[in-house]
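Hi R.,

Here are the chain sequences for the assembly we discussed:
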Amino acid sequence: MARIVVDPITRIEGHLRIEAEIEGGFIKDAWSSATMFRGIEKILRGRDPRDAWFWTQRFCGVCTTVHSIASIRAVEDALKIKIPPNAQLIRNIIMGIQNVQDHVIHFYHLHALDWVDITSGLKADPTKTAALAASISDWPNNSATYFKGVQDKVAAFVASGRLGPFANAYWGHPAYKLPPEANLMATAHYLEALEWQKDVIKIHAILGSKNPHPQSFLVGGMSIPIDPDSQNALNADKLYEIKRLLKKAQQFVEKVYIPDLLAIASFYKEWAGIGGGVGNYLSYGEFPDANGNLWFPSGALLNKDLSNVIPVDQGKIAEYVDHSWFENSAGAGKGLHPFEGETEVNYTGPKPPYKNLDTDAKYSFVKSPRYEEKSMEVGPLARILVAYASGHKETKAAVDMVLGKLGVGAPALFSTLGRTAARGIDALLIAQQTPKWLDELIGNISKGDYRIHNNENWDPSTWPVEAKGYGFHEAPRGALGHWIRIKDQKILNYQAVVPSTWNASPRDAKGQRGAYEAALVGTPVADQNKPLEILRTIHSFDPCLACAVHVMDVNGNELVKVKVS
Amino acid sequence: MSSEKKSGVPEESEHGLEKQGYSIGEILKQRGVSRRDFLKFCTAMTAAMSLPASFAPSVAQALDEVKRPTLVWLNFQDCTGDTEALLRAANPTVGEIILDILSVDYHETIMAAAGHQADEALEKTITAHKGKYICVVEGSISMKDGGVYGCTSGKTHLEIARRVCGDALATIAIGTCAAYGGIAAAVPNPTGAVGVSDAVPGITVINLPGCPCNADNLTATVVHYLVFGKIPVMDSKGRPLFAYGKRIHDNCERRPHFDAGQYVEQWGDDAHRKGFCLYKMGCKGPATFHNCPTQRYNEKTSWPVASGHGCAGCSEPQFWDTMSPMYRRLPNVPGFGIEATADKIGLGLVVGAGAAFAVHGALSALRKDKEPEETKEG
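And here is the predicted structure of the full complex:
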């Protein structure tokens, strides 16, 4: 049995290390380790709760809006603040385009090279490539001239002898299955998506000043004023620009991303039987309307059972640290609810530089969140499965379309390929829905509703002495929760349980694997010196490690003893 | 293709363009980038570097003569926000940066190789181009407990920084974390996080703070070096003057409202909708040096004040502690009267900004008008 290490796992956010034992060409066991942390929750204590969104936003610059959203929701929950409908719609548009843009970047720039061999595309016939592309989409760019231009550009780049970020990769690996024409088509769209993503995300700049890290969030609403008669507010000019960019986003998803996803997936159908993992799924639901009803439903699924959607109860979440570099005064094998969250960092790993971690002991800076003591997978797959199982009309139609085109049944979703396909379905659904929120916003403005902020409880002197609340958000990578306790107008305790904490978690006290670890077991590895297959399954989760590793406080456990009524 | 391995993998060419000494201008031509687009890029860069438009031809000429330089990008205690900012770059775009302008030999977020193949790529680059490559660092470096709070490939980030930054021509600390420690270094700094120049003393570091850094300032810094053959002049905090030489407040489009005493008092009020000054809502523009008001973000679409929210002061060292709470107004910023007063106020607000003031003393003599009320919270 051979033990291999992949560190760094590249084309992700953050610092992730995978160790795996391989036997007979398959992964027998695997361990997921996060090797960096900063301790932002500890730093947050004693600060103004209204600032928290700006700090937690820095958990992650990739999913750059999600912690702001979860944070302002948590504070609004604690202080019982209801936001105006326009602020809700603006948040939905910001979340919507974040999801779509993030998914496209993931597919083309972080995940595609696991399936696409760029160098093979140099052998493609541009005319045949154009014919292939025309058979799956009427995207106007897909001409022979266009593909020839891309091929020439890549050829000249390769001829320069400097491959830059494409050097030393797994090119030519036997697990690459696409014909040269499909490789060229995907390479062309890799470059095209690079241009597209920076354009469509200008919606964040219009509504929030910049991306990454837009700056118009406020507890109680948004800071971008609405006034069609002002040049310094959201007016017709800016709304129309958003409309144009949303259309551009939707067209690219419909005509490029989804057709490419289906085309590539059709060559890798065996991956619909690999990488299933824990089989339990959790989604918090998302996109509230003015009454707080969610467009994507919330729910949990256990043991891949789509016939029973379990209602989510945040009280059933607890975090364990038995294999994490933390201590927990509750004792070994005991989890703590985030409101009681109390963790003391204690690195007990090997002294760097090291070759291997002691995976029987503690081996990660990520904690192990569990729902009713069960390991859960979160993300687009969980979101789509919960919506599908709940009978969400749009989701059902999109899932059935994708399954139908690939000629596979619903069980194919419980896999590496299913995870990647679900992300595309998620992007498609949200790209089609977001323009409707913009129309609603325009409708409100037409009726003279310019409200963007609820000032009632902005002044801390209006707050109760103590308060607590939580905020849920379905981020691009899945179920995200922030929990806050406020005392004397300051943050008493802050905890976040983020999507990649669920997915990247190490084992818990019972030895139950986290979602990455479970998904890797049984994955084939053709060449253990070039473990391309590990990247496929890990990337299918779209890891985001800076988010996952934030939860720590060095010695602040006295704070949790404070009882909040 | 000049040479290929059996697997179809092209080897490092003996006849590569760079090895024949071709310039960026020629490489771009070879790759089908028109002269017109190239000149457009040069004009944009000239603007980003705060040079007069008449400099554009010199920029073009200089780039025509420079070879594609090697760049390695290291991610430490970061959120990848500066990498995302790079992806939003427009002049040039990230595609042009990767394929045409630079040779980005190591960048964990975008590179195809992983694990030991990625390690090899880094090792090969820093050995082959020792003393000649540019290193970009994103994120702070943990110094506590032997640096165990940040490891890649089993090595501490501190060890990696010492090696890779130590052998670089120059290191660009992108974002406030790499420049000054940033959010991880905020009180109580649980991991002993510091910026690059503190972690690896004695090396050449150019700080490009901002949360995240404006990608235009990164490309302009690189082009500045390519064009002039030297690193840009910096202030006492290691920031290039072309991007950080002026105070936000002095370049702010809402400055006339400050001087006229017209302030937003409440989110969404009439003054907010009309774009009045955000000073009373906690704007830190009067204490922050950055070119946000002129350079803006996302192809000049906007910047924080234009979205109705105050500046957070993100390009200043330790702004997380010194500029918070975010919505508390800065104390004692009177309406500016005369230059001397302005400098005095600025020095009071921004500790150690002397070098920057020395070059930007171009504050116009503004009529002293209404002064904002003293802060209640402050």
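Chain B has two domains: 18-241, 245-360. Residues 1-21, 336-378 of chain B have pLDDT under 50 and may be disordered.

Let me know if anything looks off.

Best,
T.
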